[in-house]
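Amino acid chain
________________
===
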Amino acid sequence: MKKTLWFFVMAAMLFAFFAGCSKSNEQKPQSNEVVIMGNARMYAGEDEAWEELARDFEAETGIKLTIRWQGKWNEVPQNMSAAKLAGEKVDLVTVGAGLINSIVARSGSLMDISELMEPYRSRFKDGMLDSYTIGGRLWGFPYGNSAAGFIYYNKTMFDELGIAPPKTFEELVAASNTIKQKKNIIPLIFRGKDASYWSNLFFTTFAQTTGNKPIEYTQDFLAGTRSFNSPEEIAGLEAIKRFFDAGVLTSDSLDTNGDGMKAAFLQQKAAMMHTHNFQLLQSQAPDFELGILEFPIMVPGSFSQPFGGPGTGIAVPSFADRDNIPNTMKFIEFMLRPENANKVIACYKPVVDVVKGVQVVDDPNVKFLNDVLIPKTVTYLDWIWPAEVNAAVYQVIPAIISGRMTSAQGAQTVQDALDRIIAENDYSYEWWKNWNDSDWKKVTP
C-alpha cells in the first residue's frame, strides 16, 4: 500500500515538474500590432495619410498599426509618462528634435536605436540624423520637413530700385536706407513679439563671432569649460543691436508676431523678412517676385551660417515591449520607403528631402536652399540649450536693444541661468557620461 501511494505521489510530482518546465519554455505570444502615439496632426490631409499608411502596412504584413494622436507637440513627454505609468502599449512616438535631449537626459524615456537603425541610415539625406544624435548615439529619426534661416526679399522692388542683393552688413544698411528713402516702408521685418524667436537672431550672429564654431563653443559653455560672458558671446549679442542702431530693423518688429510679419511683407509694407520657415509663403502667392538672401556677413573672415534642422521626428520609447521590436522595425522600414514616406511628408509641402526620394516643392528658391543653405546649416542652439538658458537668451536681447541692459550684462544673465540649474537641478550637459550599466540597460533594445 505504501509503495503504491509512493508511486502516485512521485508520478504527480514528476507531472507537475515537467508541466512547469513546458510552461516556462513557452514563447511569449507574438504581438500582431504596432502602436504609435504623438501629438494631434497639424497639417491638412496628414491624418488621412497616416491611415492610408496603416492600411497598406497591414495589407502587406498582417500587422495592425494603431494610431493614437492627442494633445500638442510639447505635451508629448507628459503623455509618454502617463502611458508608461498606465502600462499602455506604445512602440513608437512622434517627437520633435528639440525635445529629444530633455526627454533622454531627464527621464531616460527613449530607446537608443543606433544599432537598430544602422541598415536604414542611407535612406536619409546627409546630415539629417545629426539633430537626433546625442553622445554619439541615435535616439530618433526625422520624418517630415527641414528648415534653415534666411531672409526673404522683394526681388521686384529691389530690381526697381536698382539694389543688388546685399551680402555684407554694410551693403544691407545701404539697401535699407534706399528703401526708406524711396519707398518709406520698413526695410526688414522680424517677429519680435514672439519672444522665443529672438534666439534665432543670436544663433546667426554668434556663428560669425565664433569663427563659425557655434556648436563647439556652445558645447564648451554647457559643459562648464567656458563662460557665456566671453568676448564671442558678448559680440554676438551686440551684433543684434547693430541692426536696430543702423535702422535695418525698426521698432515695428517689437510689436509684430508671425502673422503680422507675413502680412507686412506680402502687402509690401516691408521689403525683407527674416524667417526660418520656407513654408510660410508657399500657400500665399505674393504679387511680386520672391528672392532669398543669406544672413549678411558681419564679421570679416567668417561666412554666413544658417541654423535649422528637421524638427519633426519619431522615436522608440524605452518602455516599449522588446519582444515587439521586430514588428516595429518592419514598420520603420516600410515607412521609410520613398513611396510611403511621400504619403505623409507631402502634407508638409517639403522643401528638403529629409528622407531620400521624397518629392520637394519645385521652386528656384527651394533649389537655392538645398544647394547653398542646407550644406552649411547646423543644429538650432535651442535644441541643445536647456530650456532655462534659451529663455534667458530671448529675454535679454530686447533689453539690450532698448538700452536697458548692456551686452555684457545680458551675457552674464545667461551664464547665471546655467549656473542656477546646475546648482538647483543638478543639470549635466554630458549626462551620458554619468549613466551606469543599469541606466543604459533601460534604454538598450
About this structure: Residues 150-305+382-425 form a domain with the D-Maltodextrin-Binding Protein; domain 2 fold (CATH 3.40.190.10). Residues 1-29 have pLDDT under 50 and may be disordered. Residues 171 and 296 are 8 Å apart (CA to CA).
